[in-house]
Design brief:
This protein is α+β, with helices and mostly antiparallel strands. The protein is built from 2 helices and 4 strands; from the N terminus they run E-E-H-E-E-H. A 4-stranded antiparallel β-sheet has the order 1-2-4-3, with helices on one face.
């Protein structure tokens, strides 16, 4: 996956998530929109045949890049917990 920051301003972040489908962007947008400090989070698929997804984040307060990192850590933790539970039930 190739990640490029297109806009990183006070309360606005726009990223290009090349070579990936929309799954991660959708999960991140959901997590971000659940945060009270986020005004808006969404993603856009530039073209269905080209793996190019853009993620947009606008915050009411706080650094949007830091919020994205926090949400990625939450996702990482949830996936680790799911993995652990899955290993337990498949033994």
């Amino acid at each position: 996956m190739d990640v490029k920051i297109l806009v990183n301003e006070k309360n606005t972040l726009e990223m290009d998530l090349s070579d990936t489908d929309q799954s991660l962007a959708q999960l991140l947008a959901e997590k971000l929109n659940a945060d009270s400090d986020v005004e808006f989070a969404s993603y856009k698929v530039e073209h269905p045949l080209v793996a190019c997804t853009k993620l947009f984040v606008r915050t009411k307060k706080g650094d949007p890049a830091k919020l994205v990192l926090e949400k990625l850590e939450e996702i990482k933790s949830e996936v680790a917990e799911f993995r652990s539970q899955f290993i337990q039930i498949t033994k």
